[in-house]
Amino acid sequence: MTKQLKSALRFIAAGVMTAFMFVGVANSNAQDITDGLIAYWPFDSDLNDAVGDSHGEAMGADDIAFEQAQWGRGIALDGVDQFVQTPVENEEMFDFQEGTGFSISAWYKVGEFTKSWQALIAKGEGNRWRVHRRGGESVLPGNGGNGDVPQGETAVDDEAIHHMVLV
Fold it and tell me: Which of 15, 47, 106, 135 is most exposed, with the fewest beta carbons within 10 Å of its own?
């Protein structure tokens, strides 16, 4: 089993600054932003999960920088080998669960892509899920195990802040 398949979540992207990211289970009775969330990483000044214990760990040769973002601060990844990984022992929380909805949301900015295959957020390959760049494209489609969900034609490597939701 590869390290990527063992990890719960990996935030990997070249030149990507993420303002915040959250993963939640759909709940029609939600009263505030944290109702139904299973993880929320503001990335404002640390890699901690603000609603649970899936705190991120910085991976790569250099420390991950925190820079001014649209709202507060965000992480700035170097595009070489940096990513954030969550604990393996929490990984089942991020599996598709029968009878529930599942969504992933992120605000991000891409300065430039440096590899032809890169992920913004991923839980492995195959029947897992991910939001990724594939084969040199400038878009980030989602994949939930049955093939890619088209993102459209909007290139995201334009230094602008983008928002994505994968449901």
Answer: 135
Q: How many residues does the chain have?
A: 167
Tens digit of each residue's pLDDT (9 = 90 or more) over 127-155: 678 888 878 888 888 777 666 666 667 88
Look at the pTM and tell me if it is higher than 0.85.
Answer: no
Q: E strands, 60-150, where?
A: 65-68, 73-85, 102-110, 118-123, 129-133, 142-143, 148-149
pLDDT tens-digit series, residues 28-61: 554 566 677 888 888 888 999 988 888 999 999 8
- Inter-CA distances, 20 with 38, 45, 52, 136, Å: 14, 11, 15, 25
Dihedral sign from CA coordinates of 66, 68, 70, 76:
negative
CA-based nearest residue to 118, from 101, 98, 93, 135: 135
What distance in Å separates the CA atoms of residue 17 and residue 74, rounded to the nearest whole number? Answer: 6
- Rg (C-alpha) for the chain, rounded Å, is 15
